[in-house]
Amino acid sequence: MSNRIVITAAALAITIATHAQPSAWTLENCIKQAIANNIDLKQRIQELEQRDIEKNTAQNSWLPAINAGIGQNFDFGRSPSKDGVILDRTSANTSASLQLNMPLFDGFRTPNDIAARKLNLAAASESLAKAKDDLAVGVASYYLQALYNKEILAIAELQKTLVASQVAKTEALVNAGKVPLSQLYDIKAQAAKDEVTLTDARNNVKLALLNLAQLLELERTGADFDIITPELKADMPDNTSITPPEAIYESALIIKPQIKEQDLLLESRKKSLKVAQSAYYPQLNLNMSYSNGYYHYSGTDVLNVNFGDQLKQNERKTIGMSLNIPIFNRYQTRNNVRSARAAIITQELLAENAKKTLYKEIQQAYFNAASAREKHASAARSVEAAKEAFSYAEERYATGKSTVFEYNESKTKYAQSLSEQAQAKFDYIFRKKILDFYGGIPFSL
User: Fold this and answer.
1) CA distance 240 to 244
2) How far apart are CA 292 and CA 99, in angstroms?
3) DSSP assignment letter at 305
């Protein structure tokens, strides 16, 4: 596949996804939409196009340069003849020429320059791939935040349902004379607080969806924009192993675009060194030219040769070669070579740093995932304990053996444990997906 086709395919990939937008979006749909509309990615497509133009320019350096010229001169008084003799007469001269210049040997500059441009184009393609990866991570983060907010909303709705039930039971207890009227006022106050919490949760869901929609560069975001909530097993962290960072790193070195980009740029710098060194070699060029002209003299004693005969007599054909041997150019070539070698060392350091950074990121992602799994397990145990405590408090309150404050405290702890479990679950999912992404597994839920 040619580079032009690759660039065209990349450009189409960022313009094709918005014609049939789903009513509820999956994570995969969101990632495709973001890649299709992200301005930064579109700019990188243009940078890729520019690298391809530079490569094409280098490839065409082998072609001959051909130039044509036409001239018209008028001389009054003393004027030159076609033989170069200055005469006292008025004349007109029409000339035409065609010149060709072609490099035969340039110290291997052109082939090395072509190779460097190809490597730069490949590096730009990897840079585009890295930008897509970063965007996918960002979309996944926003998507999971929206899912988390939805789960918090479900918890808030559960709390509202529970307290509404207790309001009805408290009214019955008050009417039966088992609890004072103040208990009913207290439970209704708690119901009002839960209503505020529910409103905040709804607004947080809307805000999370709005943030996601803006990241997707949707032109118009209506109230109907929503995401699909996949079935995520609550005990998933306990059943999923985490790949050690060393194993992921070995795979990531081969597949991650940021590593490929730096390696390609290093090879490009090496080719650029050879381009600089080519100035030490002689330059051999082929030159060819063709010229012709027509002379016309004014005066009664002048006999002008006709146009056709002059074209036969005045034509000139030249072919030759020129050799340019560098001797001393004020150390310009030497310093260019030194700069090219310094660029290689700099790029080697950048490549090494990219690998170290990648390993640190993978190592950090591994420990984050492991910590999130442990936190999720602890949160699950906390939910079970809080649920049992709340059931007991609910029974005691229903029989008038506890106060509304004791009931609310138990309910609040239960809600808090559910929220912590939801946060731990989505945090683990995100951390695990990040770790898998380093190993080459695309984001999906």
Assistant:
1) 13
2) 12
3) P
Rounded distance between C-alpha atoms, residue 128 and residue 150, angstroms: 33
pLDDT tens digits along 398-433: 777 778 788 888 888 988 898 888 888 888 888 888
Element (H, E) at 293: strand 283-297
Cα 329 to Cα 247: distance, rounded to the nearest angstrom: 53
Q: Is 333 helix (H, G, I), strand (E, B) or coil?
A: helix
In whole angstroms, what is the distance from residue 421 CA to residue 434 CA?
20
Q: Per-residue pLDDT tens for 68-110?
A: 999 998 888 776 666 667 777 788 889 999 999 999 999 999 9
In 89-198, which ranges are E strands? 91-105
Report residue 443 as tokens.
Answer: 């984001």
Q: Which residues pair with 294 in a beta bridge?
A: 94
Distance CA 144, CA 276 (A): 51
- As a 3-state breakdown, the chain gives helix, strand, coil percent values, each rounded to 5, of 65, 15, 20
Residues 6+ apart with CB under 8 A from 286: 64, 100, 101, 102, 103, 104, 319, 320, 321
Burial of 366 (0-12, 13-18, 19+ CB in 10 A): buried
Distances from the Cα of 263 to the Cαs of 7, 198, 338, in angstroms?
21, 53, 21
Structure tokens at 86: 């200055």
Please enumerate in sequence order all residues whose Cβ is within 8 A of that of 192, keeping only pairs 6 or more positions apart, or say none. none
Angle (deg, nearest 10), helices 404-438 and 332-398: 150
The partner residues of 198 in beta bridges, in order of sequence, read none
Name the one residue in this structure whose structure tokens are 């590096």.
123
Spatial separation of the C-alpha atoms in residues 293 and 315, rounded to whole Å: 7
Residue 168 neighbours by CB under 8 Å, 6+ apart? none
Q: What is the pLDDT, as a whole number, of residue 328?
A: 92
Please report, for residues 64, 170, 210, 319, the alpha-carbon distance to residue 61 in angstroms, rounded to integers and kept in the order given.
8, 90, 52, 21
Cα separation, 378 vs 421, whole angstroms: 8
pTM of the model: 0.80
Section 229-246 average pLDDT = 69
- CA diameter of the chain: 144
Sign of CA dihedral 19, 25, 28, 30: positive
Q: How many CB atoms neighbour CB 12 within 10 A?
A: 11
Question: Which tens digits make up the pLDDT trace of 269-309?
Answer: 999 999 999 999 999 999 999 999 998 888 757 788 888 88
Beta-carbon count within 10 A of 310 CB: 18
- 19 DSSP 8-state letter: S
- Please tell me the distance from the alpha carbon of residue 406 to that of residue 14, in angstroms, as a whole number: 57
